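Bit of a strange request maybe. I'm writing a small parser for structure token strings and I need a real example to test against, not something I typed by hand. Could someone generate the tokens for this chain?
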Amino acid sequence: MDRHIRFEALHNFRDLGGYPTTDGHRVRAGRLYRADSLGKLSEGTADWARFRALGIGTVIDLRYPWEIESSGRIPDHPSFTYHNLSIEHRPYNQAALTPDVDPGAYLAERYREVAQDGTKEIRGALELVAKAAESNTPLAFHCASGKDRTGLLAALILGLLGVPERTITEDFTLTELAAPALLADWKARNEGRAPTWPGFGRAPEAVMRLFLAELAGRYGSIEGYVSEGLSLNPEPLSTTLRSALLEKRPG
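Reply from user aminoacidic:
Good idea to test on real output. This should exercise your parser:
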């Protein structure tokens, strides 16, 4: 199923609404969006009008400050607040990896590092999500491709909402549908050269499956990670998210 919202400049913008939970609810549509870099948006374009029409009141940019300096950020606008929370602390160049690197194991290990290093920023992002939920205001979060850092945060949010792991993994793999366009963008930025790593832009299910298994093995659950890893009480956080972002499934 393709859940992408169509933009000209963005390739991986998706609504997290509609996903079922284990207790008979589903995530409300139009409240949580995940995306590739919103720095590709420009004022006065059809893309900008489409983005503004979503009523987004909070934007979380998960990229490094140097990425923002190099590639730009979403234009300022009084309708939303912008927050840069760089959750990754050990940069790595996916495009330059060698073909023998297995994407599943490699990226799952990088996610583990992000979960370990970026606790302050991840906690801040979850608190912003809860604040937006309480105020009934849509929120969007993004990184560069909308795959790795964005995928990690999406997994935590969906897990706290009670979405089953299989569905969280399926959501992660939807980046595969955007992979050709993301690859084309990379080539355009690099004089037509192709990345040396065949896994660039790909989102195999093994990545998220292994990462969630790592969290479960170390912390017991996503809630355990939030409690022990982030020093954040998962019960009121989950209650806030579920009360504001879930609705009963029809039928």
